[in-house]
Amino acid sequence: MTLAIIVVYLAIVLVIGLFSHRFFRGTSEDFFVAARTLGPFILLVSLFGANMTAFALLGSAGESYMEGIGVFALMASSSALVIPVVFYFIGTRIWALGKRRGYLTPVQFFRERWDSDALGLLLFVVQVALLIPYLLIGVMGGGTTLTQVTGGQVPDWVGGLVICAVVLTYVAYGGMRGTIWVNVFQTMVLLGLGFIAFWVIVDKLGGLSAAMTRLAENHPDMLVRGEHIKPLQLLTYTCIPLSVGMFPHMFIHWLTAKNAASFRPTLAFYPLCIAIVWVPSVLLGVFARLDFPNVADLGPGGVSSVLVKMINLHAPGVLAGLLAAGVFAAIMNSFDSQVHSVGTMFTQDIVRHYGFHDRMSESQQILVGRLFMVAILIATYLLSRVVDRSIFKLGVWCFTGFAALFPVVVAAVFWKRSTKWGAFASTISVVVLWIWFVSHGWKSADYTIADSGAMPVAVILLVSTAAMIAGSLLTRPPKLETLEKFFP
Amino acid sequence: MKTPVRSLLLYAALVVLYLLHNDLWLWNDPRLVLGLPAGLAYHVGFCIATSIVLALLVVYAWPDHLDREAPEPKARPEIKP
Prior knowledge:
CATH topology of chain A: Sodium/glucose cotransporter
Structural class of chain A: mainly alpha
Number of helices of chain A: 20
Strand order of the largest sheet of chain B: 1-2
Shape of chain A: globular
Oligomer: heterodimer
Shape of chain B: elongated
Number of strands of chain B: 2
Radius of gyration of chain A: 22 Å
Largest interface: A-B, 58 and 43 residues
Radius of gyration of chain B: 20 Å
Largest sheet of chain A: none
Number of domains of chain A: 1
């Protein structure tokens, strides 16, 4: 029954995505940024949905199971402040520049802003490479969910494959419009079923008060931050949500807005949406300690499967299927936007920019973009079969890289004196330091610098900011005609 | 343009929120507040407070000039392929 419900859910998602194609206007602007027509409500739901991942649902529950309620402060409330502020200062301005100059991708913007093809190519490679761990989260989350809710009937590799196939179908066919329609549907499913899941499971645990009392008696450390989280960790974790400023899929989502005013409800309601999704996930994660006191009790799937195991244990049957569909909604919501963004970037930043457009019709260019999506998904899927990391940790490394690139977008938008050499220095410093920190911290589950609590992102961000400033001030100022395009 | 002072006050409120995010005083507080652990209840309240400040920001410090700066598609230059 559970499997049947998930299959029906996936079929509904496919139908919505494919149906959206009927509204396709036949232009690449429509395929890649939905013709820049999104109003306030749809923009809020699609931006929120595109940022809610397996990380937010499965990852946060798993991490809360390990570290307690402090995970909410670490990732959720910091995101509630930082992400809308980035939308306000960066997103709205990128939207205006995108509409004025006709941009479809971040690389187009950075390339023109600093008059540099090589910089554009470097940023293309870095952004796509950093996006792969993020895609991995979706594939791994899909596999874990399907295996757990079917009691192992469906092997792990099938779940990941199904996610890839469904998303690829509606993204490749429906473009940004299909992605957004599905995002809106899935965000509603996620919010609705997330609330039901929380209510049903807490009810089975005897109510919120009873569950808290039991937790306080048996695992009091789960209800405080205590030794689980260090103060410096809380402080430096606030750098992580800056990643939203350099996520290519968020950049492209900003461009879909009809006008700057469309961003207003997104800013005001985003923190509340974050709380609505993360509070139940974090609480279900810590309550899982009541049913699975030790990590070894979780069995296959480990901490990333905590949420699905709680659903299976306390809401079997039809409800488990519906709730699992909610988890799938969260996973696919961001996964589709990421897949769409890599296809868009390849078509615009490589195929069109490097002259292949002369030999191809517009539909052939879109086909090439679709083929690139397939190639990236195959690579991601194969990686998911060999990578053995928790979804939360994998996500944090990915966000670290994007967040550390934040000075690049800030300088591009606000600093006239910034130069391509500053942007090169900043980007290269991020690449070098990110590789260094990943190679040193990959094996440790809770890596912080010298075990102080300081997250690597804080150091990389400082260095990349310094590199941007020094690189710019030490080189010739940008041309006046370039500046006039961006600072009229 | 909105009153710069009003905008600056709201930007300052964002900085205050950032500082308040580091609630060291609740680090080991085991009390329950509104049915939630104190450290969690505080951060839920923090999200609500952030939402209110951001709502004020979009009302009183919105960059209206952005819509004026972005022309309709006809006036847009072609991107260099």
